[in-house]
Amino acid sequence: MLEYIKSYLDSNTTPGQAGNLFWASVYILLIFLGLSVAVIAMNWLERKILAHMQVRLGPMRVGPHGLLQPIADAIKLLIKEDIMPSQADGFVFWVAPIVVVITAFTVFIVVPFGPTHAVTDMNIGVLFMLGVSSLSVLGIVTAGWASNSHYPLMGALRSSAQMVSYEIAMGLAVVSAVLMTSLNQTGTGTLSMIGIVQSQQVQQIWFAFKFFPLGLIAFFVFAVAMVAETNRAPFDLPEAESELTAGFHTEYSGFRWSLFFLAEYSAMIAVSSIAVTLWLGGWLRPFPHLLSGSTWDLVFSLLPGITFLLLGLMAFVGVFRMPKHPYFRVQTIGLAGFGVVLGLIGLLLFLPPVRDRIQDVFWFSAKVAFFMYLYIWYRGTFPRYRFDQLMKVGWKVLLPVGIGVLILTAVAGVLL
Amino acid sequence: MTDPTFHLELQEHEKTFLDSNELIINMGPQHPATHGVLRVILKLDGEKVLGTECVIGYLHRGVEKIAEHRTYTMFNPYVDRMDYVAAVSNGLGYCESVEKLLNVEAPPRAKYIRVILAELNRLASHMLWLGTHALDIGAITPLFYTFRDREEILKIFEKYCGARLTTHAFRIGGCLYETYEGFEREVKKFLDFVTPKIGEYEELLTTNRIWVERTRGVGTISAKDCIALGVTGPVLRASGVKWDIRKAQPYAAYADFDFEIPIGQSGDTYDRYIVRMEEMRQSLRIIAQAIDRIPEGPIMAKVPKVIKPPVGEIYHSIEAPKGELGYFIVSDGSTQPYRVRVRPPSFVNLQALDLMVRDQLVADVIAVIGTLDIVLGEVDR
Amino acid sequence: MVAKLKTHYLSGILEANTYLGQNYMIVETSIVSELLQVLRDQEQFDYCVDITAVHYPRREKQFDVIWILYSFPRNERIRVKTMIADGETAPSAVPIWPAANWLEREVYDMFGIHFDGHPNLKRILLPDGWKGHPLRKDYGIIQQDQEWVKINLGIESGQ
Amino acid sequence: MQPVATTFFFYFLSGLTLIAGILVITRRNPVHSALALILALLGQAGLYLMLYAPFVAGVQIILYAGGIMVLFLFVIMLVNIEKSQKEEQFNKQWVVGILAAVALGVLFVLVYTKGKSLFPDRVAQLPEQSNTQQIAVMLYGNYMFTFEIASLLLLVAIIGAVVMAKKRI
Q1: Which residues contact A344 (CB under 8 A, 6 or more apart)?
Q2: Which of A232-236, B211-215, B348-352 has the lowest mean pLDDT?
Q3: pLDDT by residue (tens digit) across A82-136?
Q4: Strands (E) located in chain B
Q5: CB contacts < 8 Å between A and D, how many?
Q6: Which end of chain A is more exposed for a tag (fewer CB within 10 A), N or C?
């Protein structure tokens, strides 16, 4: 069994492509677990970072520094009664969250965590991703309609109109990125995600910085459309508390609501991982060619270990600053344990075999984490767009800019 | 209790108006964005607001009726409960009106203390307004900044008069309590603490593109309409009318401080925001001057134990944070006022809501209610 | 200014003097609306600060309706008072100052004084079905409209 | 990548599409039939994948399921459907229905027997060029002109829609 695993680890094709379903399902399981852990972490992170941005502490009571808060939330949501409005359309009411969750998760089939770490490498990767993300609109529309009350319906219509219009801007930005892949003299362009990252590797430049302003503009168009696609931060009008109570998922509660919650976060992670793959060189470590050479490779390979050690250190700082009152004894032990675990992971990551394998997954998730921080930062600072302004930005600003960038990239590609 | 007979002013002469997707939404009394218990009935055409009608009175406690059964001093705490956000200025207005009735003058030191506390209260009221207004429009962070700073002011109030919100700080004829030891030092410390903080709010909002887009050109009202509708306070000044009772008819030692009155040009939500931020700075200037030049001396004028003002009536108004707060007191010579009429700025400003919101969008109704800075305790009395 | 008005309305103005530095005029009900119009147009009293009423049950003309006006250009206040009996209607100032709309509605709500010419004279603070006008002297302080309370709130009585 | 259990997937997908198709017409509630239609379209996308045409499947998902069906649901939701649900679904023309079905059946049989040469005899193979390139070459190569005409047609349709809605903006 061991050499079977070893033989797989250094094979150069993704499991899906290699056709062995066993490894593909292992990957799917891994991604599913990784994603739910990420969603739980995001839940805690969002509340803490947002709190600290707003001069307050965020959850501190459940577990040390609120670390157990997400778990408490999950349990609460599971236990809470799951009511359904009386005349609601049962079947559709039940289907809607399922649709939204499925679409949010299927995007990850295509996302490349490493040259071989992706469930499968479809040669229409990007197209598949766009298609699935457009399906999630259906879930939201049906959810809004199924709870047949006035406000969720308006919320659903608004959010679907918003997502449909920002999808186009997103598509244009993605096309201009895909266009860049084909402009190297060596091969023709490719839609497959791993192909895109490899062409960035070959062209020795991240697409965000290719043809200097164009790549960046396309990246920004995508970044804005991405935020609007997931109904977050300045574009979170459908859940605007001040007007439409809670938008399309007002009538949901308990487990079904947590499905929407899960779908929203995984959609956020999915969309930012696409941005990372297309523009920021998926699993490539930063400055692969400027700072090449073995010394730099070593330094960069040590970084994952260092980050985990740093996290462990932060946990220990928390332990020392924990008040000495006996009530906090359990929490201090918990925090110390957490710190030790982090430290161990950090040390583990220093072992040579683990070190170079973890490299690309680490860099990919670091970049995605950066995007997550951006999401939270937006939520802290920006007020909300009004619906017509939201549409204006979508149609009158992002769309023309997207088309312009597309044309310019094509021209630049031909000329340069 | 939905009263079917509600009556929209525009119903009679726009009968042919109800075409297919006419929508009447009830922004109910317990809606998150109405500051207190205000019910606005919106007549919508899709997103556009065609007309509004405000249903108020949910918080009506009959203050004026109670006044006729209380003596002058006993009625003083009731006044704080009207505009519970700016309780100090309510008390100031009432005490000064009765002093005018008694033809008594508060000693200079009491006047200075009154000015300091009133301006601190204006700051607290504007901070609360900024926090909730930004929250309505979606910016969550300013709320926490403003409440952290407002806490400092409430600490000073608590130390001086024992209560944080409904302070009952003044008595007829001056102030009851001498300033506690270290009052000046604490207020000075507060001034240095807050001045950069206002810069922080401005940094967060003034140049924030989305904030500008959500407020510029929203709920505009011209100077002429403001005066016709009796709108006063920052809303009037934002429309370009340079009028502030502290300057026009100075009361309680405002004459010997120099401060400007900020005015806006176009009278939209953004100008009101700028005017109120500037007013906060002016209040800081006033407090600084007042603290430096606070005279020594008695804090209570010679006022009889039982107040029996001569027969007669007076109207006296002060510049409350929301606008002109006026008291019309009729006395029949007995210890209880015969009639106390309170002219509440929020009540009259709210009347302008219908004009300001016409042909705007639903999201703007929330922004306009926020920018009018109404407090329902004062609207319903 | 008062002298000029006096020559014009001779009998109409019953009394005009100042008390504690605030000048006020007591005017005949018949000429009140015309006087208000003049005050706004010629004398630039463009801001109607407040409209209120006071109830003197013992006088045969029971109510005092009071208009408090202010002029921006002249930075001056004036109070115009008129006396009307119970049941009589007072002229509405809404066509002159739109601000009067809610103020008059409140006076009607609290005192029961009808203002003719008011576009939408309806109770503003109390619920529409409420009987009785609280700010009248004969209205007890803890008195409530039992019948309304029973129907709408379904409780025996508010007390 | 050699295909895996194709026969099972083929029958599963075509069965799915068939059932969904039937559901579309039998459901009383329009939203249910719209969802069934989406299911049918996804089934079709699966079949395209079976024929090694991933690009077409991708476009099918984006355009049909993601775009047009959303607008279907939009329209269904905006027009309140309580009234239409009450009406009797099947009116009396089932006779005409039967006749049409019979004619269609005859047509199928004829095409199947006569046009044997039309159907490819062998199972679809993995084409050498990737599917996207094939389509690109076809679309922008020899059918360039028709592609432009089609886009012009769409443009006219959009402008028409805007003009019709103009009076409301």
Answers
A1: none
A2: A232-236
A3: 777 777 777 888 888 888 888 888 888 888 887 777 777 777 888 888 888 888 8
A4: 22-27, 39-45, 48-55, 170-171, 174-175, 312-320, 323-331, 339-343
A5: 85
A6: N
ipTM score assigned to the predicted complex: 0.80
Nearest CA in chain A to D75: A157
Helix (H, G, I), strand (E, B) or coil at B315: strand
Neighbors of chain D by Cβ distance (3+ pairs < 8 Å): A
Binary contact (A134, D62; C-beta < 8 A): yes
Contact B316, B345 (CB under 8 A): no
In this predicted structure, the answer to whether residue A244 has a pLDDT above a threshold of 80 is no
Token pair 């076809």 in the structure block, residue: D138
Residues 6 or more apart whose Cβ sits within 8 Å of residue C53: C63, C64, C65, C66, C107, C110, C111, C113, C135
Q: What is the distance, to the nearest Å, from the Cα of residue A35 to the centroid of all Cα atoms in its chain?
A: 9
Q: So what's the pLDDT on residue B10? A: 40
For chain B, list the contacting chains (3+ Cβ pairs, <8 Å). Answer: A, C
Which residue among A380, A383, A387 places its CB closest to the CB of B137?
A383
- Closest-CA residue of B relative to A49 is B141
Other chains touching C, judged by 3 or more CB pairs under 8 Å: B
Q: Do A382 and B139 touch (CB under 8 A)?
A: yes
What is the Cβ-side half-sphere exposure of residue C44, based on CA atoms within 13 angstroms? 7
C84-131, pLDDT tens digit by residue? Answer: 888 888 888 888 888 888 999 999 988 888 888 888 888 888 888 888
Instruction: Answer yes or no: do D2 and A19 touch at CB < 8 A.
Output: yes
Q: How far is CA D39 from the centre of its chain?
A: 10
Average the pLDDT over D29-41 and give the result.
87
Is the separation of the CB atoms in B73 and B57 below 8 Å?
no
Neighboring chain A residues of D73 at a CB cutoff of 8 Å: 138, 141-142, 145, 160
DSSP character string of D47-87: HHHHTT-HHHHHHHIIIIIIIIHHHHHHHHHHS--HHHHHS
Give me the architecture of the D1-82 domain, per CATH.
Up-down Bundle (1.20)
Q: Does any CB of chain B come closer than 8 Å to the CB of residue C23?
A: no
3-state helix, strand, coil in chain C (%, to 5): 25, 30, 45
B363 to A240: CB separation less than 8 angstroms, yes or no: yes
Alpha carbon distances (Å) from B356 to A135, B49, B267, B350, C63: 41, 11, 10, 10, 35
Question: CA-CA distance, B267 to B262, in Å (whole number)?
Answer: 12
Longest dimension (CA), chain C: 60
Res D167: pLDDT = 67
Q: Which residues are CB-contacts of D122 (< 8 A; sequence separation ≥ 6)? A: none
Structure tokens at C153: 């709130």
The residues, any chain, with a CB within 8 Å of residue A331's CB and separated by 6 or more, are A63, A64, A322
CA distance A80 to A90: 19
> D65 and D74 in contact (C-beta within 8 Å)?
no
The backbone torsions φ and ψ at residue B328, rounded to the nearest 5 degrees and listed phi first, read: -110, 105
How close A416 comes to chain B (CA, Å)?
A: 36
Q: What percent of chain D has pLDDT over 90?
A: 16
